[in-house]
Design goal:
Layout (H helix, E strand, L loop, with lengths): L1 E6 L2 H14 L4 E6 L6 H11 L6 E2 L7 H19 L3 E5 L3 H13 L3 E4 L11 H12 L2 E4 L2 H9 L6 E3 L3 H9 L5 H7 L8 E4 L3 H4 L2 H11 L6 E4 L2 H10 L7 E4 L4 H10 L2 E4 L2 H10 L3 E3 L7 H5 L3 E3 L4 H9 L16 H16 L12
Helix pairs in contact: 1-2, 1-7, 1-16, 3-4, 4-5
Length: about 375
C-alpha cells in the first residue's frame, strides 16, 4: 500500500517521526515536505535529530499570507498526487499544509486520513481552527488523540471512520526522551532544574499586534524565576519590527530543536506558552503549564489542573504562577504510546474495506 504523507511545520515533524517508522515496516511511504517551515532551526534539524527519512519531495513553498501559501501548496500537491497515485493521503494537525493536503485529496477523490482529528478550540478567528474543521469534514479516517476529540466529531455529525488511537506525540516522547542528555542541555542554556520558567510564543494573535506582544512580555515578566524564551522566527521579527524592549528577567535564545526542548520542558518549574503541543507535552512530563490564550484545544489538561488558561490577563497569570503544584498523579489522557502502530493497521484495514469506492481514483473536473 502506498501512503503519501504531508508535513510542513515543526509539530508535524514530531508527529510524523513515530508514524513514519510504523508505516515503513509494512507499507510504502512517500514523504512530502511543503516547506511551510523551512529554516534550519524549525525544519532540517528535526529530520536529522529524530531520524525521519529525508522527504521524497520538498515543495519549498515558504512563508506568506494564508491564502497565497495554501494555494501554492494545493497546486503543487494536486500535481504530485496525480503523479504518485497513492492509496492514502495522510495529513497531520492543523496547519495550512494540512488543509492544502486535505483539499487536494478531496478534489482528486483520494482517500484521506487525518492524524490528530477532532480537536476544537471553538475560536474560528484562529486559522488553525478553520483548518481542523475543514480537514475533518474531508477525511475518511479520523485518528483522534482523546475521547473529547471523538465527542467533538460526533457533535458535528461525524462518526464513520473515527478511531480513538491516542496521541502520536506521546509515542514520540516515549521514544526520544531517554536519548536526551538533560544535564548537558541545562548546562548549555545555563539554567538549573526547577529554578526557571520556559516560555514559547508564536501565535499570530499574540505576536502580530504590538499591544498584545507587549502584554505577553509583561505577563512573562511576572515570574519571580528567570524566564527562558526560545524565539520563534515570527516572534523575533515582531520584536524587531515594533522595536519592543524585553523586560528584565526574560532571556531570549534561538529556536530550540526537539530533543533539547524536551529536556528544558521536563526540568522547568513552570511552562508559559501559546502552543498547543507544548501544553500537551507539559502534562505528559508533569510540569505545570500556563496558557497565554483565551481557550485551548487540549481541555483535558485544564480539567485535571495541570494547565491554567489565562490569556494575557496579568492578574490571572500572577495567580497561576503563585498557585501550588498540582498533585503528582496524572490521568493517562493521551493513550498508551501505540498510536502510530494503530494508525498503520487502520490504514491497511480501511483500504481493504473501501478500495471499491476509490477505484476511479482521480476525478478530473469537467
Amino acid at each position: 500500500m502506498k501512503i503519501l504523507s504531508i508535513v510542513g511545520a515543526r509539530p508535524q515533524f514530531i508527529k510524523a517521526a513515530p508514524v513514519s517508522r510504523a508505516l515503513r515496516q509494512r507499507h510504502e511511504e512517500i514523504l512530502v515536505h511543503t516547506g511551510q517551515h523551512y529554516d534550519q532551526e524549525l525544519s532540517a534539524v528535526f529530520f536529522a535529530e529524530m531520524g525521519i527519512p529525508e522527504p521524497d519531495y520538498n515543495l519549498g513553498v515558504g512563508s506568506g499570507a494564508h491564502g497565497r501559501q495554501t494555494a501554492r501548496m494545493l497546486t503543487a500537491l494536486e500535481s504530485l498526487m496525480e503523479q504518485a497515485r497513492p492509496d492514502w493521503v495522510l495529513v497531520y494537525g492543523d496547519t495550512n499544509s494540512t488543509l492544502a493536503g486535505a483539499l487536494a485529496a478531496a478534489k482528486l477523490n483520494v482517500p484521506l486520513a487525518h492524524v490528530e482529528a477532532g480537536l476544537r478550540s471553538f475560536n474560528r478567528a484562529m486559522p488553525e481552527e478553520v483548518n481542523r474543521v475543514l480537514t475533518d469534514h474531508c477525511a475518511d479516517l479520523l485518528f483522534c488523540p482523546t475521547p473529547t476529540a471523538v465527542d467533538h466529531l460526533a457533535a458535528e455529525g461525524i462518526s464513520d471512520g473515527v478511531h480513538l488511537v491516542g496521541d502520536v506525540m506521546y509515542d514520540a516522547l516515549l521514544a526520544f526522551l531517554p536519548r536526551v542528555d538533560e544535564t548537558a542541555v541545562l548546562t548549555r542554556y545555563e539554567v538549573t532544574a526547577g529554578q526557571y520558567v520556559l516560555a514559547t510564543a508564536h501565535r499570530a494573535a499574540n505576536t502580530d499586534d504590538p499591544a498584545r506582544l507587549t502584554a505577553l512580555l509583561d505577563c512573562l515578566a511576572l515570574s519571580r524565576w528567570p524566564v527562558l524564551l526560545p524565539l520563534h522566527p515570527r516572534t523575533a521579527a515582531a520584536l524587531q519590527k515594533f522595536n519592543l524592549p524585553v523586560p528584565d528577567g526574560i532571556r531570549l535564545v534561538e529556536p530550540v530543536s526537539y530533543l533539547p526542548m524536551l529536556a528544558l520542558e521536563k526540568n522547568a518549574r513552570c511552562i508559559m506558552t501559546d502552543s498547543g503541543g507544548v501544553q500537551k507535552e507539559a502534562y505528559l512530563l508533569g510540569v505545570p503549564c500556563i496558557t497565554l490564550r483565551e481557550e485551548t484545544e487540549w481541555v483535558e489538561t485544564a480539567v485535571h489542573g495541570w494547565n491554567v488558561i489565562t490569556g494575557l490577563d496579568r492578574q490571572k497569570v500572577a495567580a497561576a504562577l503563585a498557585a501550588p503544584r498540582p498533585p503528582a498523579a496524572r490521568m493517562p489522557l493521551f493513550g498508551d504510546g501505540t498510536a502510530a502502530v494503530q494508525i498503520s493497521q487502520l490504514l491497511a484495514d480501511g483500504w481493504k474495506l473501501n478500495h471499491r469506492r476509490y477505484s476511479s481514483f482521480i476525478i478530473h473536473p469537467s
